[in-house]
Amino acid sequence: MAQPIPLTLAPKGPDPAERLEDALHEHTDAIVDALELLQLLHDRGVLELLRGLVGAGDQLAGILTAAAGVPESLRGMRNFILLTKFFTSIPPEVLESLVRTAATGAEREKAHRAPGVLHLLRRASSEDSRHAMAVALDLLESVGKAL
After folding, report:
1. Residue 135: which of 77, 94, 82, 80 has the closest Cα?
2. Can you say whether residue 78 is alpha, beta or left, with left for phi > 0 and alpha for psi between -120 and 50 degrees?
3. What is the dihedral angle through the alpha carbons of 119, 121, 126, 129, rounded to the nearest 10 degrees?
């Protein structure tokens, strides 16, 4: 004859309402911060934008897919990746020096103290200027080869 299967039920956890009440007391500061953030997103229109993006899901994916398949988009993405690689290969000290020099030169031009031609030729003959001109000429030659 068939034997009954013993059934033991696992004790049920706390009531969901109790868990919610406990969480509200335990995480009050985080909940208030989250609500403030939500209000800011709402005030700035970000939530409306996100709601529109989610609502247009399939349509938006189709538009992006169609746009990405165009040769100009592919070329633009490749160029962006190459420029990113280029800028990451430049040491930050070099870019900082370039920015500082450009700012100094702009201030000098604002003061209308343009250097004379002989002064420019003297500066062009310095070792640092010749290094920079060599790099610029290398760049110019490579652009010319690519044309």
Report:
1. 94
2. alpha
3. 110
Give residue-wise pLDDT tens across range 62-116. Answer: 888 888 888 888 899 899 999 999 889 988 998 898 889 888 888 877 777 677 8
Q: According to the model, what pLDDT value does residue 106 have?
A: 82
Query: Residue 145 half-sphere exposure, CB side, CA atoms within 13 Å?
Result: 6
CA distance 51 to 70: 28
Model pLDDT for residues 37-47, shown as the tens digit of each residue? 999 999 999 99
Regarding pTM above 0.70, the answer is: no
Asked if 140 and 147 touch (Cβ cutoff 8 Å), the reply is no
Token duo for residue 80: 């962006």
Asked if 53 and 60 touch (Cβ cutoff 8 Å), the reply is yes
Please report, for residues 11, 61, 66, 94, the alpha-carbon distance to residue 70 in angstroms, rounded to integers and kept in the order given. 60, 15, 7, 36
Handedness of CA 71, 75, 81, 85 (dihedral sign): positive
With beta carbons less than 8 A apart as the criterion, state whether 133 and 125 touch.
Answer: no
